[in-house]
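Might you be able to check the backbone structure tokens below? Thank you kindly.
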Amino acid sequence: MGKPCVSVLIVNWNTCEHLRHCLQALRRCPRAPDLEVIVVDNASSDGSAEMVRREFPSVKLVVNGGNIGYAAANNQAATVAQGQFFLLLNPDAEVTPNAIERLVAFAQAHPDAGAVAPKLVYPDGRLQPSVRSFPTPAALLFAAMGLDKLSPRLGRYRMTWFRYDRIGEVEQPMASALLVRREAWEQVGGMDETMPIFFNDVDFCWRLKKAGWRIYFLPDAVVVHHHGASTRLLGIGKLWASHQGLLRFYDKHFRPLMPAPLYALLRSAIAAGSALRIIVALIANFLRRKNKP
């Protein structure tokens, strides 16, 4: 048997039931015989690894002794993957029957495509906004000040004006489901493991663009995404991890471009904004617990 066309890379941490549905959806795909499915389990305690061994024996399972993070686990999966394309797929995502086939066909027809993103929908069929611009200082400032609500031109970061019914070139689609050309992945060196949970996908897309690859959005390929099954388990720690990821992204890509005093001011503003978000979340959690009967 030759090498598979697509290697599906799934990083799992304590989402056993979601993972089961994810793998069942892959099994129903017309391209299933040509898929190599790799699950990297980050030391789950909910029986995820045992479930994969028992119910999906054809899946390549890598079990880590600890939670090494999303970025490192994806890199780990990529080292054993044999496909021409990698499909980064969250365990709480379920591909619709022809989604992978359409993503691959588009990528093969567009050799400049380093990555192709499907349209994400919630389980009830509602559109899930999944495309943003890169979080440049100006884009985040407009969003933080609420100016993005005044004009589409100022809403660049959240891209509220984006048409999800059209094929288009994009900057930063969610990596919950993202087809990546192997050549592009290897050229940029996979994911940055210094961003273990958040902003590693943003950084990856940034480096793809800088290397000359294009990233496309394909609305005809649809993936159902339950959104945040693993990260929800982090609780308030999710906000802190997101803050650390953003700072690492800025240190890597913006510090060299800005005068030191200006960059220190920018970093302080990010830290203050993050602290405010955490405080608000803590108060909200306290009030919810207090009001419980």
Remarks:
- The domain at 6-129+164-226 is CATH 3.90.550.10 (Spore Coat Polysaccharide Biosynthesis Protein SpsA; Chain A).
- The mean pLDDT is 90.
- The two ends are 60 Å apart (CA to CA).
